[in-house]
Amino acid sequence: MDKKVIYLDQFVFSLLFNIESRGRVNPGHEAFAKKLHERLRRLVLLQQVILPHSDIHRDETTVFHSAIELREAYEFIGGDVQLTDTTTVEFNQIMDAAEAFLASKPLEFDFSVDEVLEDRRNDWLPDLHISVRSDYSVFADDLRRTRDQTHSEMEKLAVQWAKKKPRFADVLKSELGSILPAKVGALTASERRKWDPDPEISVNAIAAPIQCEVRALLKLMAKAGVPADQAGQAVRDFWSSKIYRELPHHRISSYLFAAVARRVVQGQKTIINRGLMNDIRAIACYAPYVDAMFVDKTSEQLMHERPLSDDLKYKARIFSFSNQDSFLDYLDEIEAATPRRVKELASRIYGT
Questions:
Q1: Is residue 92 predicted with pLDDT exceeding 70?
Q2: Considering only CA atoms, which of 8, 113, 111, 1 is closest in space to residue 52?
């Protein structure tokens, strides 16, 4: 088998959850939601598709009013498969780039979808689904606080864009070239927090992604024979390098930020919302690997705008409510290609 991997935005899982639990669905989306639920559930049981969940889903579910039930639903509906956390995807790309940088070799990546899955993609789905009703509500307040803070920072940035009216190319250049100051700033801030009297803040600072990245890069530098007194500068040189600017997650997110800025300059008021950063991060991390993504309308439209559609290279086909019929057609194509023997076995095992 060769199961397709489809990333569904959180709102799609919520939609499917409402169908599964016979909850309320927006009248404008009810017909599509029912068709989508039927097709996706059937394709998962036919062993043709998996709908893996990510750390983004986990965080957004934690602040949902029925968190435990929604978590059980997306694990069950999606086929019990999990994506590698976004921070780990970014970290692995960084380390591959660092090795290429030290060896003075071209940057190459393995974009096989199995590189970003925590589970075996092509195993037959177990005929029993076992879940643990874990309660993560203790983390909800911190997640909301972080989300609100990020949203506030984005709103401030949007005000600057609206005032200064930068061109797309200017914002893109700024984003692609902001790595070194952003890394140094994050590292400096985490170093301060490491000595905070509050042990929780201190421990979180030590485990921060920037700290993990620096420790791993220094270890790699030492392994490559870089003298200890030159390793720090070597890390800075890597952060300033062309190779780092070509990292898929950084390149895609930079283009998306520039596209968002263009919308703000054009006067769009609703593009800055609390889910924007998660949308950008999901696309930047997973679009190079997965077969398809169903995201919100704005994200889908941005990815199909120029120069994004011309300059960015990624595997995923991008869908949203704007082209929902095309998504259903895509799912029908997958089912039509299901081998006859697989259909027979799925019917016997799962009652499809």
A1: yes
A2: 8
